[in-house]
Amino acid sequence: MAIRIINHQTAVKGHVVLVLLVLLLFQTCRHRVAGLAPTVPATGQTKLMLKESLLIPSMDPEKEAKAMYEKALQQYGIYGKTLKEICKTWVTRGCQCTGTKEEVTLVCRGIGLDAVPADLPSELVKLDLSNNNITNLPNKSFDTLPNLEELILSHNKLDQIYSEAFFGLANLKKIALQNCGLASVPMEALKRVRTVISLQLDNNLIADMENVTFRGLHLLKSLRLEGNLLQRVPTEALIGLRSLEALNLGNNLLTVIKERDFPVLDNLYMLILRRNQLTEITSGALTNLTRLKVLDVDDNSLSSVPVGLENLMMLQEISASGNRIRWISKGDFPKNLVSLELKSNPLVGIKPGALQNMPRLRKLILSDVRGLNELPPLDGCASLEVLRIDRANLSKIPDHICKTSPRLKSL
Q1: Where is the signal peptide (predicted)?
Q2: DSSP states of 38-83 as a string?
Q3: Fewer Cβ atoms within 10 A, N terminus or C terminus of the chain?
């Protein structure tokens, strides 16, 4: 007995199951028979043509045909799913499911999950499980998601994250673990996701990072640690992060930043230290941050401008509002500044030359500096566009300010 196929022609856009069946027959039997050849019609649409009668010998042709048919159906089930079919079960559970059938985004935020679902679609590139009741992440919680790039687990009370919880996430770029009640950094688990670019550990209960190192995360660009209980800069954890661009240590319990607290961070351009309890940033404390462009020390207890800022030649934006700074002296700031914010400081004086000859300065904020009676000379600040002096006790504004700063738009 034999299976006989005579002059059958099938287009790629034809019935999917039949196409797969013919392809499977071709793959299985091409080493035994001849005469199968692809043809390209004039229209450019590829067709598969059986040019002559083929005879496929078989000991049990009915069984073989059935097996091939079932395999074709199975492959159709894997590769032929539409986005609607992938999303159907998740939408009924209260999730939002978007994207394409190859790249699916699944948002299951606040639907009462107490564990990571075991049947997540393998096509996921983004998964949001935030605001649920998940308490632990067992080993291989996401090992069926090889294409996942973004994982959001924030606002879950995670009591335990096993060492291989993130096993199999070979393409993960962003992981969010903020507001998870973490008392320590889950380093054993995190060191297995070496492709991570962004790591959020903010608003947890992390007080000690002495034995933590992110050294293996060579691609890490953004690290958020604000809103924890850190009393010192986690120097050891930062060593080796040569790709790091943005570091947020705001809203912790830092009081002093000393020399060498920050290791060499070649590419760091943004450092946020706002809302700590800083009384001093010593000379040389920021020396290793040679490419720093943005420094935010708002809402601390600094009584003077940190020493050494003038040596950071790439520094462009400084925000030091809400401190206890009384005097600004010549040489406190680098001349390349673009933005300087000093509002709500008890300023009593800005010495001559302190804010002069800053050709790139575009924004100067001196709001709520109630102890300041006189606006300092701004000669050499031709790019200045925004000057805020509201709620300050200035008795007069220099007559020549519009000449020295011809681009001034807001006063």
Answers
A1: 1-35
A2: EE--TTS--EEEE-S-EEEE-SSHHHHHHHHHHHHHHHHHHHS--H
A3: N
